[in-house]
Design brief:
By secondary structure, the protein is an alpha/beta fold. The protein has four domains: 67 residues, no CATH class; 166 residues, Rossmann fold (3-Layer(aba) Sandwich); 149 residues; 291 residues, Lambda Exonuclease, Chain A, CATH 3.90.320. 41% of the residues lie in helices and 16% in strands. It contains 27 helices and 22 strands. The strands form six sheets. The chain has an eight-stranded mixed beta sheet with strand order 8-5-9-4-10-11-3-12. A five-stranded mixed beta sheet has the order 14-15-16-17-19. The chain is elongated and about 125 Å long. The chain binds iron/sulfur cluster. The site of iron/sulfur cluster (SF4) has 13 residues, from helix 20 and helix 27.
Amino acid sequence: KATIQHPFIFAGFNALTTAEEKIMSWFVEHQQARVFWDEDEFYVGAEHREAGSFFRLYRKHPVLGKTFQPEPASHFSKPKQLHIYGVPQKAGQPKLLAQQLIDQKLLADGESHVIVLPDESLLMPLLYSLPVGIQSINVTMGYPLMSTPYFSLIDFLFDLHRNKRKDEFYYRNILPVLNHPYLHALAPNIVVELKDFITKNNQVYLDEPFFQAKGEVMAFFFRNVSEEDFISYLLDVVNRVATSSAQGLMDKEFAFYFHRIITRLQTLLNNESMELVMLQKLFRQIARAEKIPFSGEPLKGIQVMGVLETRNLDFDHVHVLSLNEGLWPASPRQGSYLPHSIRKAYGLPTYVHQDAMYAYLFYRLLQRSEHVNLYYNTEPDVLGTGEMSRYLYQIMYEARWPYTKKILYSSVSLRQAKPISIPKDAKVIERLRQYNKKELTPSTLNTYLECRLRFYFKNLIGLREAEEVEEAADARIFGNLFHDVMQFFYADLKPTKGNWEIRQEHFAEVEKKLELLVDRAYRKHFRLPDSKKVNYDGQQWIVNEMVKKMADVVLQHDLAYVPFSIDMLEEEGFNTIFPLTAQFSVLLGGKIDRVDRKENVVRIIDYKTGKDENKFASIESLFNREDKKRNKAAFQALFYAWVYARRKKEEGLQLQPGLINRKEIFKEKFEYGLVMDKHPLKDVTPFLPEFENHLVQLLTELFDPRQPFDQTTDEKKCGYCPYKEICGR
Ligand code: SF4
């Protein structure tokens, strides 16, 4: 029972539940309880301001209405120092706030400051951004479990095990686990080594024995776990990571909560197993709903709070981050199976109530403050934050406080890309001179003809693109597989001694052979052991079929050409030393796909799986960099014919360079050989002197110290160039 000395007092209430309303009314009626409403004329007096909607309602309440002051307070009429900052991207806001605290010398008197985080995930960026000079910070809010490194680690482990293929882990799921900071902390060297190994060796699937050989940490994380044991595995992981010496206090706190969640899952499952997909969903759902409550010394230091924690607290200095629609006010969440109309009809709270409540929290926080700094994200992004919060507009246009508004941006100016030209200084010349020992291949010369600068980047200084695992069989893999299949086919027919004759009987059961050869090529490309069965997935299967089909057609043409003999097959070091000047010779050559002979006809064959054509206009056109249709494949084929002629020096040969190219081979009337100026090139020998002349000119230019490595003038060539960022093209 209330007495004069001990009255019942209700203070700071706003959106009352039905129970609260009834209890308060009873106490007011029967116990003379007093009620203190924290309201302001600014939002109570204006019907359209949602923040005052509850007070307007309670003022008309038969019992509670009497507890209101006749006129609400009017703190809002007293102007405040209001600064509004628009910052691109959410992580920029804590940085700017920290800067403001330093610039405005606001670090002393920390207790009078509150930093409100409608987006709790900004807590860590904020704590890392706050200046070191701050003596103490008190965090009173829930930190979402989903924003912790433990969540990402466990989620990655779910993915890793969910996407296994027959006990093998998929590299796309392995890499995120290896990249995780906790794994880095546990085994820094082995993590780097493994990532390197996977990309360099194009490893798509890796199994448990592989990881077991990589040390205890890897064996622990990358082990095969059944669905029944998965929860225990996760608990082991949390325990293992939490007890490592690299873990800070905060990490250990996170670990505690995750241990609790996983144990809860274990209890829920009650020794039953559950599909990992479902289990992961359940885990995410539980983790999403959980927050780690931070609590500290509330009367000391700068206060960092969530929105709800600001209830009934007043601060002189208020800093609010993330004032964007969807964060404050929060986006309307249904959270109930009852539709809005039913909730409304039965007087249950709807999102309108939620909006009114959040609006009240905002205005109440500001009403007794003196300095207000409000930050919002100017770049609403995929993470769901919307445009500038409506509260900001209301404050700017309705509160009549003087304010400043600043928008941070990085100035973007269209910079005219400067031309790049690399002069041939002594160092560059030195590098160029390596070509008297290192082969200058036709594809390198093609690069030079395309763009001198590209040649410099790619071939002289070896600027490479970052390596990535190629799992989907792209055009390049298609080419490699096809080359290998053709090589295996003929290499298997090579006699230990004598002539490498190819006869009709060698083509028996070609289809069966091709099946095995494609497997072999695939094994070689993806470095799979012979013991391992090859499994083709989706796109790989299609590419393998294409390889088989193309190889089959090529072999049919070869069958029609028998008997012939193989002279060279995927021969490396097929080169010739060419004296460019009296003092300097160049080593010209490369790897030739195939040279075969039938009587005096020598075919110098280049397999092409791209869009290359077998027609070209003239020898000169092959060297003309201005020619938009310059035939690079024909240049390569003629180049090898020229090398062949220099090496063999045989009289009476009919040299036929040509392409076996995807574009032509499927045509009904496919005819091997190049076509120059609409005439089939039956023998290239008479044209080789002209070819050599142009080649000499090209090489002279390449080694000429006065000719810099400059950019191509045809910007179309830059389209697929890996260096276009450097060139600004
Ligand atoms: S982007 Fe263009 S100019 Fe630059 S290296 Fe590549 S091809 Fe040459």
